[in-house]
Amino acid sequence: MDKTINQKAWFLVLPVFLVVAFSAILPLMTVVNYSMQDTFGNNQFFWNGVGWFKELLDPSTDLGGRFLASLGRNLFFSAVILAIEVPLGIVVALSMPRDGWTVAACLVILALPLLIPWNVVGTIWQIFGRPDIGLLGYVLNSVGIDYNYVSNEFDAWATVIVMDVWHWTSLVALLCYAGLKSIPDAYYQAAQIDGASRWAVFKAIQLPKMNRVLLIAVLLRFMDSFMIYTEPFVVTGGGPGNSTTFISIELVKIALGQFDLGKAAALSLVYNLIIIIVCWVFYTVMTNAGVERQSAKGAA
Amino acid sequence: MARIDLVDLAHSYGGNAADPESFALKPVTMTWRQGGAYALLGPSGCGKTTLLNLISGIVTPSRGKILFDGVDITPLSTQKRNIAQVFQFPVIYDTMTVGQNLAFPLRNRGVPQGEIDARVSEIAGLLDLTPYLKRKATRLTADAKQKISLGRGLVRSDVAAILFDEPLTVIDPELKWQLRSKLKALHRALDLTMIYVTHDQTEALTFADTVVVMHDGRVVQSGTPAELFDKPEHTFVGYFIGSPGMNIVPAEVRGREARVDGHIIALHRSYDKLPPAAKIEIGVRPEFVDVAAPAPGLLSASIERIDDLGRVRFARVRVGDAKFAARVPPGFSVPDNTAGLVFDPAHVHVYADSHLVEGTL
To answer: Do A197 and B108 make contact, defined as CB atoms within 8 angstroms?
Structure first.
């Protein structure tokens, strides 16, 4: 087949190319440029090659030690909040009413935490947990639990995790609820006739039908929790010690605190790369699930 | 295996105190024998699905009782009723294979594994599902999925009745015939009571030996397809069943004569005691009215169009304000505008307020 070749079409892409170039490619290249250099005061730059990247992956150096330790905290944090929020979100969605005015009430109440800005959430919990004036801190201490998120590592972690669960379980619950609502009544009726127990209904109908939304929920919650910054920064400031210092907090410390632009640039590139890789893995898994569904439809 | 008795059964979604006219199902009393094939036929919203859900226990009746073999099962939950139901859209458990789907009702009831395997392979054989037993059920066609839903009902040996809620809605037309004859064959082979809800008269008339016609929450007639055709007890049955439906026109009836548009039509029976205030109509199926050349003794009608159905032709005509459908005898060439109508007196019925009136011979 003869196809007319018309290279002029490229001009149509030019505006987009320019916008993307200025908004994404140039800043990224600047970061790449910084990541290869060391900075001193008065804007003096010295070539360092891949030195920072080598340091990042070497736990014996200061930079590498801090990066790998905070990476470990990030992964642990994401694992814990996924392990809590996903099952909890499912339980909340399952116990929500299916119709009536209570549905609207539940949805509004669930949506409230999602509407609060991150730093406000942090401030709320910072005050809430204070042993002197905070309701939570005061009550815990007065019943004999020695709770202080400023000085105790475990308390700091517990506060950050509970805060995230409070803030984001709603998202998982709302997604699951949407998935549950899309199941036709006939499925429940058929299960009743088949004599299925509550657990069997969950396993055979509800969980499989929620599959897709659960994948989306896990993806969103992983990405978001892996990039967490504001809330722990406001509540604990990364402490006590470095116990709640996540990669993002470390990054800000290096870039703005120490003004080590080279180290910070290298760190942010690697951070970005991790997120992109995880994104890609999730995307592949999800589209594969979609393909399976498509071929099933084709057969039907 | 059971005889099903409905005793003064009624249901309102608005609660018992509501006005009886608003009931989704108005009080009905009837008996369905064990092993019968019944069809509940009626337009959307006539209460047929409500009646089905009452029997399966998905809906609890506002009033009345349901007996299986004389035992009142009204308060029992769906699980305890030994009922199987096939829904409009195929319900299959996505994560399971066909075999696991079929085994599911038995597994839930704690049947021993050996027995489950035996039942599943027996039912799979009956439904021609044996080659698919190990396959994921999601990948099958709609008709195979419907067979699985049916199979989950059949697999239980204690099933009292199988209920079908418009099960062929999503099936391709050519497969509908196959699946319907499969159902017929299963009914003959298994001696099960089957109750089939549909709004498609062809489905109802070919499947059932007794068709229960419902209209506006009421059972208007229950009978064999031939009874419904020959002697509709309600004008609704007349025009809902048959294609085209029965002609129903207002008339003055006196003795053995009906007067329509100033013309007298002879009746086979005598009607002397018609209720005085009632709306009197006569009903006659198009199959029993022939178009003829206009003649002085015949009711004259203006012809609007001819429907050629291949095997038979029907003329759509107008008598005064009333519309008629009438058969065109084979080989008869229809006049351009006016024709006479010849009635078969034996098949002209008289209705008072939409209900059939029995005349005396």
So the answer is: yes
How far is residue B252 from each of residues B53, B268, B273, B282, B351, measured CA to CA in Å? 43, 15, 13, 9, 11
Q: How many domains does chain B have?
A: 2
Chain A nearest-CA distance from B81, in A, is 8
Q: What angle do CA A74, A79, A83 make, to 5 degrees?
A: 150
Rounded to a whole number of angstroms, the distance from the CA of A121 to the nearest CA of chain B is 40
Interface of A with B in 165-194 (CB under 8 A): 184, 186-187, 189-190, 192-194
- DSSP 3-state assignment of A30? helix
Its domain, for residue B101, covers: 4-240
Structure tokens at B66: 């349901």
**b/e burial code for range B328-348 (CB count within 10 A of at least 16 → b):** beeeeebeeeebbbbbeeebb
B14 CA: distance to closest CA in chain A (Å): 15
Both B260 and B231 in one domain: the answer is no
Q: Residue type at B58?
A: I
Whether A190 and B94 lie within 8 Å, measured CB to CB: no
**Token pair for residue A280?**
């890609």
**A120-150 pLDDT tens trace:** 988 998 889 888 888 888 888 888 888 888 8
pLDDT for the residue numbered B18: 64
| A142 vs A136: CA distance, rounded Å | 10
Strands B161-165 and B193-198: parallel
Residue type, A15: P
Residue with more model confidence, A299 or A48: A48
Q: Find the residue in A nearest to B89 (Cα).
A: A186
Q: Is B147 helix (H, G, I), strand (E, B) or coil?
A: helix
DSSP reduced 3-state for A244 = coil
Picking from A184, A195, A299, the nearest residue to B109 by CB comes out as A195
Contact A193 B94 (CB under 8 A): no
Domain boundary among B240, B268, B294: B240
Do residues B234 and B293 share a domain? no
β-strand partners of B63: B10
Do B345 and B198 fall into the same domain? no
Residue type at position A44: Q
**B274 and B146 in one domain?**
no
- Strand B210-215 relative to strand B37-41, pairing: parallel
* B95 chain-A contacts, CB cut-off 8 A: 204, 208
Report residue B20: phi and psi, to 5°. -55, -25
- Band the pLDDT of A289: cuts 50, 70, 90: low
Label residue A108 by pLDDT band (50, 70, 90).
very high
Per the CB < 8 A criterion, the answer to whether B3 and B160 are in contact is no
Cβ atoms within 10 A of the Cβ of A33, count?
Answer: 13
pLDDT tens-digit profile, chain B (361 residues): 578 888 888 888 876 666 777 788 888 888 888 888 899 998 888 888 888 888 888 888 888 888 888 888 888 888 788 888 888 888 888 888 888 888 898 888 888 888 888 888 888 888 888 888 888 888 888 888 888 888 888 888 888 888 888 888 888 888 888 888 888 888 888 888 888 898 888 888 888 889 999 988 888 888 898 888 888 989 998 888 888 889 888 888 888 888 887 788 888 888 887 887 888 888 899 889 888 888 887 888 888 888 888 888 898 888 888 888 889 888 888 777 888 888 888 888 988 888 888 888 7
Among candidate residues B240, B263, B285, the one where a domain is terminated: B240
Q: Is the ipTM of this complex over 0.95?
A: no
Residues of A in contact with B164 (CB under 8 A): none
Q: Which domains does chain A have, with CATH numbers?
A: 71-288 (1.10.3720.10)
